[in-house]
Write a structure and sequence with these properties.
The chain is mainly alpha-helical. It contains 4 helices and no strands. Mean pLDDT is 85; it is low at 3-8.
């Protein structure tokens, strides 16, 4: 077994460990919900002529990114989930046009 495949197995095991722990999963959900609420608040308060959807999204991503930068490992997972959701929505927008 190569070093890369061994590292990949350890990485997958770490993800599975994180997703199977109820406390960590709950923290991920709370971070995601807080980011969505922050984004919606910014979207509602931002002037309508200045693209509030962009600034609401950036506020949510900045909140989660700040937590990930501060060392909260669960926030890094939420960042990846937000990126995956954006990719899926982009593909659906292209397909359903």
């Amino acid at each position: 077994m190569s070093v890369l495949s061994g590292h990949l197995l350890v990485s997958v095991a770490g993800w599975m460990d994180m997703l199977s722990d109820p406390k960590r999963l709950g923290l991920m959900v709370m971070i995601a919900v807080a980011a969505i609420i922050i984004g919606r608040i910014v979207h509602n308060l931002w002037p309508k002529g200045s693209n509030p959807a962009l600034w609401g999204t950036l506020a949510a991503v900045l909140f989660v990114g700040g937590l990930a930068y501060a060392g909260v490992a669960e926030a890094a997972v939420v960042v990846w989930l937000f990126i995956a959701a954006a990719v899926v929505m982009g593909v659906l927008a292209l397909v359903l046009g």
